[in-house]
Structure formats: C-alpha cells, structure tokens
Amino acid sequence: MFPRVLFSGTCRLPEFNSMDLAVDVIDSPARMRELSDTFREAAPPLGLVPTMGALHEGHLSLIRRAVSECASAVVSIFVNPAQFGPGEDLDTYPHTFEKDLEVCREEGVSAVYAPSVGQMYAKGFDTWVEVPSLASGLCGPCRPGHFRGVATVVAKLFSACKPDRAYFGEKDYQQLVLIRRMARDLDMGVEIVSCPTVREKDGVAMSSRNVNLRREERENSRSLSRGLFRARELLGEGEARAAVLIQAAREELTKACVEIDYVEVVDSETLAPLETVQGSCRMVMAAKIGATRLIDNISLVP
Ligand code: AMP
Predict the structure, then answer these.
(1) Domain 208-300 belongs in CATH node 3.30.70.1170
(2) Which of 2, 94, 168, 289 has fewest C-beta within 10 Å?
(3) What distance in angstroms lies between residue 19's CA and the mean position of ligand 1's atoms?
C-alpha cells in the first residue's frame, strides 16, 4: 500500500520511480522545524502555502506564486478539525492526498508538511489564538469557534515551518484579514501575501467544496458571483449606496433560491460594515446551497 506519510524521508509517488521525482513529506513539527532551518540557511526566503488539500487551480495559483518568489516553498496539507463545528462537513471534506503530492511535485514544491491530528493536537492541548474583533462578524456567528481554530492552526503551522512569507487567497477574505492581524499582533515576522480569487469560466470561485454540489446546485452557485459582479456594475454606473448594492446582489441569490447567510459591504481592513462605498472596501457574502455552504467576495473600488 502507498505510504501516506514518512516521518522524515522521501515519499514516493506510485507511478514514478526516479529519486528526482520525489517530494519530501514531513509529519512531525520537530522535523519540519529542522528542515525549515536547512532551507532558510541554504537560501532565504522560505514560503509557506497552508491548505486543507483537495488542491485545485485556486491553490495552485498560491503555490506557483510561492515557488516563483521564494527559494524554497512548503505546502501544508492538514484538514483541521478545530475549525469545523458540530454538524459541519469535516467527515465529507474531500481528500485527494496522493494526487495533491503529485501536483506539489510537478510544481516544484520543496516539501509537503502533512501532520496527523495527533501531532497537531496532542492530548491535553489547551492553547488557543483568538482575534475577536475580526472573528465576530460575517461568518463568525454562523460558525462559532471557526476562526479560533483557523488562527490557532496557522500559528502552529508558522511555528513549525518558520516561513518568511505565507500565501493566502482573497477567496477566504475574513480569514486573510484575520491572519494578517494575528501575524502583526504576535510579531510573527511572517509577511502575509494575498492572492486574487481564481474563478471557473462561469465566474464561480473555485473551492474544494464545489465537488459536493449536485448539478442543479452547481448551476445555482453561479448566483454568488453574479450578485457580486452586478453590484460592481452598479457601482461603475455611479451607485455608491451599500444598501442598494446589497439589495441587487441579494436579488441574484434569491432568484437562484439559495439560502442567504449574509451579504455585506465592509471596510477591507477592519471588516466593519459600511453604508457607502468609499476608500478600500469589499462586498462579502455567504450562502447555503443544499448541504454546502459557499462564500465569495469582491473588491469594490469607487
Ligand atoms: P483551503 O484548502 O480551502 O483551506 O484553502 C487554502 C488556501 O487556498 C487559502 O488561503 C484559500 O484562501 C486559498 N484558496 C482557496 N480557494 C481559492 C481560490 N478559488 N482562489 C484563490 N485562493 C484560493
């Protein structure tokens, strides 16, 4: 059977035999720290791309950027139970580990960090990182504990991988802003690099969760980006009132019969709701389609 993770060695992909076609797969924080030191001593900077696997083109855009901008790039693959609430999709979250390794190898990733749940959360684990002002709104109320889980796991990934730069997608906008604040507040010395959302041809933001959508649900999921683009179009025509833009976006979602969680116009840094589009702001939204919860957002430039 194909080995899922080797402690400190080289993980072989089944269809390749040459040593050159291997990617290091690390599952222990101690070994990851050692390897990170080696990478950084050989040549900085070291880049990290944190993921939960099931890699798609959205992840690839982050990985390619890290590989092109950094001397070494580590991709972490860890489905973090601490960021899933009871009744959320932890059990059905897609896993494509072998394929992900192959993708990382093809993209020239230096190592994959794939700790087990036991390695990340040893018995008695009781230390958490919270950024309440940025976690309390938007997805916060619907997903209690989610951002605490995200901030904590990212802090742990940073301390194991010791990256100079870490790459995050604008797709998860609240997460991006919160991680940036955490890194700043805790003097982590990591530059947070934000990468634009990668979309399917029809506008749908790529997400590992899209594979769970049935055909009709996939069709209805187009309403999220349609709503965002409609709002941006109205803004281009001179409409700057947030309430009007929100209403236009909500209409697209309602037409597709999706269950709206929120649609808001917020300040890009503080995530505070705005009444008028001004300065740097974003429209952010979340909606449930069948059993799948999707999020999306777009920058609004007056
Ligand atoms: P995930 O595996 O869903 O935790 O995502 C890992 C990273 O990939 C996060 O920084 C996400 O924001 C980013 N990401 C996910 N989907 C996209 C996308 N469609 N475009 C750009 N980045 C993305």
Answers:
(1) no
(2) 2
(3) 30
